[in-house]
Design goal:
Length: about 140
């Protein structure tokens, strides 16, 4: 049911933990399954130089946070904002449809952390295409 990539990132998660004195933190949760994810970012000159996650959730959520932190590291904030849940799922070589919402958590966590940084620095927060919490399990989002 799960790809080798998902299993790999679940068994050997990359970037697990929390950055001390992070520049941006995003905490998100899925009210339906109750899983939660915390993303912390180190940002220098508009670029993400480090990303970590703490996820209390299912295997797909852990694999998604691991992959998402890998994908955004080294990217500018603009580039990282464009990393969608679909990109995370693709990088994991697919997720079962009923597990797509787990990758949404990773996208939302990164977005929230970026916006927390932007607000702290007197910048306008960027707008979510899909507001927090409006994805539901199984909607394929
Ligand atoms: Fe909740 Fe995967 S079942 S994030």
């Amino acid at each position: 049911m799960y790809s080798e990539k998902v299993m790999d990132h679940f068994m050997n998660p990359r970037n697990m933990g929390e950055i001390e004195n992070a520049d941006g933190i995003g905490e998100v949760g899925n009210p339906v399954c109750g899983d939660i994810m915390k993303i912390s970012l180190k940002i220098e000159d508009n670029r993400i130089v480090d990303a970590r996650f703490k996820t209390f959730g299912c295997g797909a959520a852990i694999a998604s946070s691991s992959m998402a932190t890998e994908l955004v590291k080294g990217k500018t904030l603009e580039e990282a904002w464009e990393v969608s849940n679909k990109a995370v799922a693709e990088a994991l070589e697919g997720l079962p449809p009923i597990k797509m919402h787990c990758s949404v958590l990773a996208e939302e966590g990164i977005h929230k952390a970026i916006n927390e940084y932007r607000i702290k620095n007197g910048l306008e927060p960027w707008e979510e295409k899909t507001p927090y919490g409006e994805h539901t399990p199984g909607d394929g989002a």
